[in-house]
Amino acid sequence: MRQAVLGRSGIAVSEVGLGCMTLPTDRLAAVRILREAVDLGIRFFDTADLYGQGLNEEIVGEALAPVRSQVVIATKVGNRFEPGKPGWTWDPSPAYIERAIEDSLRRLRTDYIDLYQLHGGTMDDPFDDIVELMERFVEKGVIRAWGISSIRPNVIQRYLMGSNLATIMMQYSLLDRRPEEWFAAIEAKGVRVIARGPVASGWLTGKKVPQPGDTYLGYGADDLARAPQVLREVAPDRTPAQAAIQFSTAPGAVCCAIPGASRAEQLRENAEAGTLPPLTETELERLRAAYPAKVYTEHRPT
């Protein structure tokens, strides 16, 4: 498995990680997938306190406790929930974050978190207080690095210009190339992107068949139907899922991708994308030509 670095943090991770949100809710099945991921060379695991109202963190903590020193665990905070009650509210206040990190540490069975991420963000958040708190967590050794998970350009710019964050998690795939507009600025600051959704909710794998009326970010059913075929034609020695994952890790601003997996077979296919030769520039250009980049139209800097 190729290795990468989480931005200016210097933390080494596998180029293909595991997004844990889609793990089975069956604890034993999920633990088996997580432990097989380690066996396959995956060293980066991303969860959030919101997933399953803490259950996902508990499962990740249980599975990875025996190999804690060998793996990098990321989790997120900011979406406040009441256990047993549906829904959540956005709460980026330092007081809430301080309580939430203690709960995450307990559920993850660890005394430190490798990457702690603000799970969203708005321009109305107490920016200076959040940055100060995250840096204090780093100084205390509670976290090794911090970042944000956001697709709002104005929020991203604010953190890039005014903090020492290490990473920005963004949805990025062949069907969602909107982040590319901001890659140069992100890379120039020594920050790196964690690409979530590299297979575009399954539309790029060939295993999800679009029906009339299906859409994804402005693409219709015909566009969605041809995407896996384009990937097969451009990279016939890979599965569409593997080519899609490699497309998402190709830009210099991207350090790693975190596809999810609900089955062991899916996990193995995804992990292999980190061992196969990268896509060539010619192959990448063919894919870019097939699905040109769009831009974010909302939450742009003024």
TrEMBL record:
InterPro entries: AKR, AKR2_Oxidoreductase, NAD(P)_OxRdtase_dom_sf, NADP_OxRdtase_dom. It comes from the Bacteria. Residues 16-290 form the NADP-dependent oxidoreductase domain. Pfam families: Aldo_ket_red (PF00248). One of its GO terms (molecular function) is oxidoreductase activity. CDD domains: AKR_AKR11C1. This is Predicted oxidoreductase. It comes from Alicyclobacillus vulcanalis.
